Amino acid sequence: MEQLKSRLATTNDEKYASQISGWTKESGTMLPKTVDDLMALFNNNDSVLVFDNEGALVSHAAITYTYSDGSVEIGCVITDREKRKNGAATQAVKQVLVLADKKYPSNKKFALANEHSATLFEKIGAIKIPTTELSAEVWIPCKTCPRIPKQKSGQPFVCCDTPYDLTNIR
From CA 88, how far away is CA 51, in angstroms rounded? Predict the structure, then answer.
């Protein structure tokens, strides 16, 4: 397995923001991020980039939202299609969790996992949680998601993604 290197994204990384934005649009399994969305994450020191031995960007993860209840969402986990299955996404998530623990040491950390990222989160020890354990504020972006499941009146919110608690992952 090749040695991967990770670092925080900076304001000088606009070319990577464009690349990551393209990956999110192509994925079909996550809400796409614009270059501006990603640059905001970069400007807030909320993104981790992972590079291969040649210095090519291979993966990304970020602290995508902090909510009014103090909870912190880890997301925008994406890897270049050609570089998957080499541990890059796992490294990105673990590094962004280190970052989240530094910035928000006592806050709940969670992720909304699609069918691809669920495997990664389970592999690192994340625990599935019901949607009711998260603030209603978390589900606001779902209104624009083309994959939102039909909701049943009087029932807890149902998302096409599965929430995972990442608070105690090290």
Answer: 8
Domain membership flag for residue 16: yes
Residue 42: both structure tokens together = 């970069």
Planar angle of CA 167, 100, 112, nearest 5 degrees: 55
pTM of the complete model: 0.89
Residues 52-94 pLDDT 10s: 999 999 999 999 999 999 999 999 999 998 888 889 999 999 9
The DSSP bridge pattern shows strands 57-66 and 72-79 to be antiparallel
pLDDT at 158: 67
Cβ atoms of 140 and 48 within 8 Å: the answer is no
pLDDT single digits (tens) 87-140? 999 999 999 999 999 999 999 999 999 888 899 999 999 999 998 899 989 878
Residue 170 within any structural domain of the chain: no
Domain with 138 in it: what CATH number?
3.40.630.30
Domain hosting residue 19, numbered range: 5-165
% helix / strand / coil in the chain, to the nearest 5?
A: 35, 20, 40
